[in-house]
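Predict the 3D structure for this chain.
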Amino acid sequence: MKAPAIAALLLLAGCGHAKGPRLFKLLTPGETGVTFANTITTDDSVNVQTDVYVYNGAGVAAGDIDNDGLPDLFFTGNMVSSRLYVNQGNMRFRDITASAGVQTSRWATGATLVDINDDGYLDIYVSVSGPGWSKGRDRANLLFLNNGDHTFTEAAARYGIADTGFTTHAVFLDYDRDGDLDLFVLNNSPQDFARGAADTHPMGVPSNSPGGWNQLYRNNGDGTFTDVSREAGILRQIGYGLGVAVADLNRDGWPDLYVSNDVSPNDVLYINNGDGTFTDRAGAWLKHTSVAGMGVDIADFNNDGWPDIVQMDMMPAALDQQKRMSGYLTYGSRMELQHRGFRDDYGVNSLQLSNGVTKNGDVSFSEIAHLAGVAATDWSWSGLFADFDNDGSKDILITNGYPKAPNDLDYQAAMMGARRAGDHQRALRFLKELRSYQVSNHVFRNNGDLTFTDKTEAWGMDQPGFSYGAAYADLNNDGRLDIVVNNIDAPASIYENIQPKEAAPHYLRVKLEGESPNRAGIGSTVVVTTGGQQQSIYHSPYRGYMSTMETRAHFGLGQARRVDTLEVFWPDGRSQLLTNVGVDTLVILKQADATKGARTITAPRPGPHAPFQPTEARRTVPYRQPEVESLDYDVQPLLPYELSRQGPPVAVGDVNGDGLDDVFIGGAAGVPGKLFMQRKDGSFVESVQGQPWLADKDYEDWGAVFFDANGDAVPDLYVASCGYQHAPASRWLQDRLYINQGGGRFVRDTQALPAMPTCTASVAAGDFTGDGRPDLFVGGRLTPRNYPYPARSYLLRNEGGRFTDVTEAVAPELSQPSGMITAAAWSDLDGDGRLDLATAGEWMPLQFYHNDGKQLRNVTAAVGLPPMRGWWYSLAFGDFNHDGHPDLVAGNLGLNFMYRTSPQSRFGVYAADFTGSRTTDIVLTQEIGGTEYPLFGRARLGPSLYSVALRVPSYAAFATASVEQLLGASELRRALHYQTDTFASVYLQNSGDGRFTSVNLPNLAQIAPIRGIIAHDVDGDGNLDLIVAGNLYATEPNTPPADAGNGLWLKGDGRGHFTPVSPVESGFLAPRDVTGLALMQTPAGKAVLVANNGDSLQAFTIRNR
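Done. Predicted structure below.
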């Protein structure tokens, strides 16, 4: 690993390297007695070229098989026998495999513990797979029944669960709530591992054999099981399943299933209908997932009561390593997958934050792995939520590694050549020389604010290896979770948690004693409350990758000395509540002590008293923006996102004087704008009679505002014109002014505006001359077909309904192409009675222009802010702290995107025609250690920068080269160059002396771009609140979209602080590709109008308090 790459890992992943006592100690086999190693033996006929799953590893199960109070360990082996170790105390274990009769000679994968026969002893269910040429009888899953004397009897066939598929893992759950545990079997068939063919079907290739089908077996209650997969709605198609987890995701009391699939089939989210069937809701509830999904876990990591999901993928943490295996998707290939019915997924880990259940019963998720700092952790297998430091917040453990690097693009290119030549020996030589991914596991500490800090080194888990299944358990009953890992080609790892007791926070362990036949109480939910902080655990021990956790629930309590309440909700609807419970102890809860109907775990939904109420369909503006078939990448293949997917712009104003706001929605190329008149009942009807924009349908509207241009006290309409695909200086870039002749009847005044043959978007009306007539600032957005080159802006002085361009005289800086402005706002920032100007834009800082009565002077350097170049989208002024000075809120790209920037590692761009193709090439960059490196590698840049690719034919060499090494210093000197400082959305508090103090908005407001802001007192408490929303869906194919936004109410306290209110609580849910917000007056009061790109508008009435 190169030094710059290590620097990138430290800077971008936020590694924590605080010195001090380590949390974990890796014990040696000599110390533990655990010598098991999952050794894989390969040769010319058995290797990753002939068996793509040869290095998929195996699992581990932790559970008390002999009821002595100590968790024992069972490891599955692929080419070696599985092993069973009994816990003798003090972290010592004894191998009883042979005497117990649990040897295996099959390709064992998943390890599952369950008391299947209700005798009070844990049995062992072993998942079995094998290479594609293996026989079904050799893949039959195994069931070892516990005889209660350290011996076992195999009985899978007798129970009807000797499944002969290619099984990865198996989980037990009471899906029909009849009291006994049913079985879900996750399969993954190498026989059908033909992804080119699989891509032709949304859920994979229908297989001639069911070896790749997932199976659901219903427990008949008599020691047998029946396959009910088809009638239960389990998909009868091939699946490449690598992870499965059980949880009650919508808190309706029924267990649901998440299936993590590898590459071709999208993930499946089986939601339990409560009638013996499941419905896949992944497409409706999850905006995107990991494409090469591996292990998965579900738990409430932010302690809000809603289960969240973590899923593993295989993106390296270091930038140079990323470029050696990714970036090859094209817009065409992405569109082809969409047309075949696939959802867009991406090659990074996923962390799905649950926002709770919406009014219609769906669960709203936000994917926040980048914000959390856990998106890229190398070739990762198991992801587990658990509180390893007992601070009351669940941390994340991730296992890593792979003995070969078959996704290395240089290797793939070499292999393609060897196969075309029919040279098998050359292909084998390439394989033998191929590097490995021998990397350490990761452990991330939960910071309690939706982010995590990498504590891998600080906590003592930085040993490199090839690690797969993992389990956490308190192996020595000291109240601290230990970790067990199944490794390939190395002894299993046992990490003892050695957090010093004198400094250790408190804990509580809970053991459930359910009633027969579900004695472990699987499917229960345990809730602990301390000091107003609530934690919950859904009781399912099957988590991560191929593994089983111990069944005692573990809660870290921080410094709390008592547990206020301990509550358990059993699967049959009974519950029990304990109060004032002691800490640092084990509590046993018995289902026999529970009562029916006392309390319920079922979820709340937004009610009629929520502050925001979705407007009835008949009162919503009846508009849907047509989908755009963009050709932007044909113009500039290296665009970071599609410029043509803008808007629609929305302008709100009472155009007919009836006291109700009407709505203008800007048009697109070939689609005219529309004006909707609001009626007395709050519904809207389109005004089409003779409206002039019908004749202007060839313009593209990127901005619009109502204002009184000619002093007749009725609002006129200004529309800003742009269009990425227009030629520069095209006549279709001319802005337009439509004069309201009364009653909402408009005519275009073609003489009112100067010639403006540039691309504009933001428009702000304000009387900057002080003559009582509203003037205009019009922001230049970009140069068409030439991203990221900027455009000039305009100051238009109102001379009685005619507008004069006074930019050169009043603000000469703005008359030059000086920025890609996305938003502007006027306000008197210093109390001198004159309107000042603030602007925001892409690749720009926030900029401030002071009005001295003659000119607008750029005073950005004097307002006291740090460097703040970003991707800014929106602005809103308001006095948020009641001091009489206008403060400013600015919406940025957010902190949950693949693009990361900081003063130490700035994100940037170089743009120029680097190849002589007469096209502006775009090279995004990341600064590492003072040197700028391309963000993408040869796979992404090579087809456009073909001369560079020819000169640097190796993906590896390209990956480590700086921008200067690739393009040359002279080329960079003539290129356009931008860098950024921050992507955080901020609150800027005005001190009243021309200076501002910047504070980041809360992290929940950083999960997506803020493309619309409304400052409004939502709850009538006299303090201004914020209503924010935004997403950015149309990113280039290799970049996960910024799609986590669901809209947010930020409640102001009158002192410049804001508290996020979840969409479920507030009722404000705007999860689409939001591009703007507007506040409007309706008969029912104020309402928020939401503009969605390529979709319908949404509207929410703010309930009067």
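Confidence is low (pLDDT under 50) at residues 1-18, 194-206.
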